[in-house]
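Figure 6 in text form: structure in, sequence out.
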């Protein structure tokens, strides 16, 4: 997977990703429950989502690593992980181009990233895997594919349920078809 000297950096990225994801979810829940003041940035009535902060952190750490000689610093790994966490926490929003923060795709994306970083940081190199480790990796891939297929079947039902018990989004006061962004 990774050279031995990069494995600790992958662990730092993993911990930072999970920290940023959990903190952003907890803040969002507390703000929605009015247990915490609204700390969201609004510019002329537009809510600036935290995925934008993540994108700026990713761009900044990328520039830092490109233009600074020497090996990657642990600080870069932490900033990179926080940027990933903030960006992929809203993965579903930028995947589907809508304003629904509570999408399953975001959670799934963070899980896939966490597993990949966990493998990079903790798993032995692939050439040292035993049959049991290959079987575990295959089982994980099969579960991931099954979860994605199940989510595709269940998502329309969840959207109808969230829109008011079976009605369309338009009936629930949601965006009209003419207002939706098309790719």
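Output sequence:
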């Amino acid at each position: 997977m990774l050279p031995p000297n990069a494995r600790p950096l992958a662990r730092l990225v993993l911990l930072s990703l999970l920290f940023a994801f959990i903190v952003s979810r907890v803040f969002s829940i507390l703000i929605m429950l009015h247990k915490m003041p609204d700390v969201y940035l609004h510019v002329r009535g537009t809510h600036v989502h935290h995925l934008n902060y993540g994108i700026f952190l990713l761009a900044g750490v990328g520039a830092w690593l490109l233009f600074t000689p020497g090996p990657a610093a642990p600080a870069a790994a932490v900033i990179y992980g926080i940027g990933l966490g903030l960006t992929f926490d809203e993965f579903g929003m930028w995947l589907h181009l809508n304003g629904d923060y509570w999408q399953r795709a975001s959670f799934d994306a963070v899980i896939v990233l966490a597993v990949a970083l966990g493998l990079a940081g903790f798993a032995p190199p692939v050439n040292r895997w035993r049959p049991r480790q290959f079987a575990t990796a295959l089982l994980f891939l099969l579960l991931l594919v099954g979860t994605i297929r199940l989510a595709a079947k269940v998502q329309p039902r969840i959207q109808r349920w969230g829109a008011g018990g079976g009605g369309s989004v338009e009936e629930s006061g949601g965006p009209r078809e003419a207002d939706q962004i098309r790719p």
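Caption detail: The radius of gyration is 19 Å.
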